[in-house]
Design a protein that fits this description.
3 domains; alpha/beta; six-stranded mixed β-sheet; two-stranded antiparallel sheet; Rossmann fold
């Protein structure tokens, strides 16, 4: 019976994940997963899945084509109102089913849906972390690491050899000499580490809709890169005419009213890399989001110079996403394409609305850098 239940549960989980996979693009575009994120799992609302079954009428009445009535009469039950009518009641309504799915599973679904290639970390990592691995069994150790199966086996062997084992009353009582404990070794395992440096224009032309697009994008970029790297860090930089590093919450909630100097953000990004992330040890991903409205041509040329000399050589990929704003000129993406149109490590993408989020994620992550 337990095996049958496990099989049914596994089949149910498979069906639910199929539903999630079918609607993944809708979940991404609408941002339904954001705000439901837990520590390692995401709660996803899916339509209720019911097993078809016959329902018998509780009253002693005829079926279709029987009893009193004329052609065209309603077949509904007596005394019931249609949907949206009648007084407020106390009965329970229909609820959507929520399923917990790990972020790793979501990342795998994203990779399959968008056909994203696995990322090949550049170079060899010089960073390592200590990893414990169980390698054997020994006679001493803490009780928390007692190997119950091996302890039981040793006690059984001892009782059989000593003649105290009774097959008709098979009671096994381990003695201290029978106890066995797991042993382990500590090794240094190389780790491919990565950092994402998010930069966003928070000037007055970047409204809540534009920031929501950036928030959804960053969730899925994080999910995919965390699946590729065991160690992933994120840093956040906001800018108008001046740039500064902030935490995640401030990044998505701040809105300024000043002008826009994009080079200020690139200078902060450059300083973060130089101070904390040596390019030969880290896989570096700067992502910049703006409406494309920069202060001047001189500042745009300053951005180009920083990109050429610092950010592009240090990064696996430099990504620029331009969200559409009724107040922005949209010129900056044209300037980047003019100067870096043939640079494989520079990826630019227009994101006019939420429907463009999925294509932009594929554009950013589809090259496997």
């Amino acid at each position: 019976m337990a095996l049958k239940i496990d099989q049914d549960h596994a089949r149910f989980r498979h069906i639910v994940r199929g539903r999630i996979r079918q609607n993944l693009r809708k979940f991404i575009s609408k941002g339904e997963l954001i705000g439901r994120q837990g520590k390692d799992v995401v709660s996803i609302p899916v339509p209720q899945i019911d097993i078809p079954r016959f329902k018998f009428n509780s009253r002693d009445a005829g079926g279709l084509g029987q009893g009193e009535g004329d052609v065209g009469d309603s077949l509904g039950q007596d005394g019931q109102e249609g949907p949206g009518k009648g007084k407020a009641g106390q009965g329970e309504g229909q609820h959507a089913l929520e399923v917990d799915v790990s972020i790793d599973e979501l990342a795998d679904m994203l990779g399959e849906e968008l056909e994203l290639p696995a990322i090949q970390p550049k170079g060899e990592s010089h960073i390592s972390q200590k990893a414990s691995k169980y390698t054997g069994v020994r006679r001493v150790g803490p009780e928390s690491l007692r190997h119950f199966k091996r302890t039981y086996r040793e006690a059984l062997k001892r009782q059989i050899i000593s003649g105290t084992f009774a097959p008709d009353r098979p009671v096994i009582i381990p003695a201290p000499v029978d106890k066995r404990y797991r042993s382990w070794t500590v090794t240094n395992a190389p780790v491919a580490n990565a950092v994402i440096i998010y930069m966003m224009d928070v000037s007055g032309s970047m409204g809540d809709e534009q920031k929501e697009i950036v928030r959804i994008e960053s969730f899925w970029i994080d999910a995919w890169l965390r699946r590729q790297y065991k160690g992933l860090e994120t840093r956040f930089v906001i800018h108008d005419s001046v740039a500064r590093e902030v935490d995640r919450e401030t990044f998505f909630k701040t809105r300024e009213s000043g002008g826009t100097m994009i080079s200020s953000a690139y200078k902060v990004c450059k300083a973060i890399i130089e101070n904390d992330y040596p390019p030969d040890e880290w896989n570096i991903y700067p992502f910049h989001f703006s409406d494309g409205d920069n202060w001047s041509l001189d500042d745009t040329l300053a951005c180009v110079e920083i990109l050429k000399t610092s950010l592009i050589p240090a990064s696996n990929m430099f990504a620029y996403g331009q969200v559409e704003s009724p107040y922005g000129s949209g010129q900056f993406i044209k300037d980047l394409r003019e100067h870096f149109g043939r640079e494989e490590k520079v990826v630019t993408c227009d994101i006019p609305n939420k429907d463009a989020i999925v294509p932009s994620i594929k554009e950013f992550l589809g090259k496997g850098r």
